[in-house]
């Protein structure tokens, strides 16, 4: 018996008629995200333009022990140069022979105080850059005295070679750009220099960043037995050329609405100290006396940064420094230096501690987490949050200091390289 559907009644017809009018599937609306509002760094034009670094500064490029009487090629701020040692002093020169463009770092020191190009024997004075001989054109080559190769100012400090890249101005004395306490106090240093991918600005911002250590570094071996606060209330203060992160309050755990409680300390971790009076000198769980040299500096905060990208982290018994040295737009050198202010026989325990543990845990696995983040950072665009006040103040410092330098250059009739066009 055939049943006829009443008008308006629902049916589950599966015959030919149903195929003519297929049921329409509900349309899923696109879920638009709340994307970052800052699309570029145009608020800080000098900082935005400094992809390959800021000129007018001394940069550490290698260990002193790595420079001998054979040229060593270095790339700094996108410029290729070479370093060579003569009678104990290190010299720097542009690494391109003006004849045919062959790297002078492929050459040799055929005569004391000079370097000779491997191709045709063009020979340059290391101090002045003057072409003093062309070996394949005879002793009376008429081109001698008509060519001068660009040279770089070079110094050695704390076991490293430093190179100044400027715009024709007289270099600032290197001691004026080093952390002040390193100039006036004896100390022992543990170094690490590592080529790294990523722009130098990402590395510097990561170093001075307020929030990342509290989450990213929880898994590091260096912090395994130490508690980490969940968040801080922090203010940024400037003293002289340095910006400081000053921690005012620390919160070790929180109950996050709709999520839960975080973090939970493991049984093997130390408990936070009740007295946080030293919270601006390194680790609040430390009960060690502060080193007299460090105490005398009266640092407002334990983390500070200055131009052209120097980070200083203060602990009770040592200070850790990081230089983020621009190689080019996509690469930088990570230069880490851990300094204890002691001398004589008091330095002996340092070597065992640094080589046996600190180098691998602190300058190694701990720092490799930062390396990873810098490699994968892709900003701008970006959406900042409250702890990023440290980044904003750092960018403003870089902008203001660079503007002052441009004004000084103009007074001397000079212009930055990026304004020569």
Supply the key terms:
alpha+beta; 6-stranded antiparallel sheet; 8 helices; disordered N terminus
What can you tell me about this protein's structure?
It is a single chain. Mean pLDDT is 88; it is low at 1-19. This protein is α+β, with helices and mostly antiparallel strands and 421 residues long. The radius of gyration is 29 Å and the shape is globular. The protein is 20% helix and 27% strand. It has helices at 16-20, 45-49, 180-184, 200-208, 212-215, 292-297, 348-376, 389-411, and strands at 57-63, 72-76, 79-86, 89-94, 114-116, 122-125, 131-134, 151-157, 160-165, 188-197, 231-239, 242-251, 254-256, 260-262, 303-306, 310-314, 319-328, 331-340. Helix 4 crosses helix 7. A hairpin with a 2-residue loop joins strand 11 and strand 12 (242-251). The strands form 4 sheets. The chain has a 7-stranded antiparallel sheet. It has a 6-stranded antiparallel sheet with strand order 1-9-8-4-3-2, with no helix packed on it. It has a 3-stranded antiparallel sheet with strand order 5-6-7, with no helix packed on it. It contains 8 helices and 18 strands.
Q: Mind summarizing the main beta sheet? A: 7 strands, antiparallel
Q: Which structural class do the helices and strands define?
A: alpha+beta
Estimate the mean pLDDT confidence: 88
Helix share bin? 10-25%
Q: What is the N-to-C order of secondary-structure elements (H for helix, E for strand)?
A: HHEEEEEEEEEHEHHEEEEHEEEEHH
- Give me the count of strands: 18
| Spatial strand sequence of the major β-sheet | 10-18-17-16-15-12-11
Strand content: 25-35%
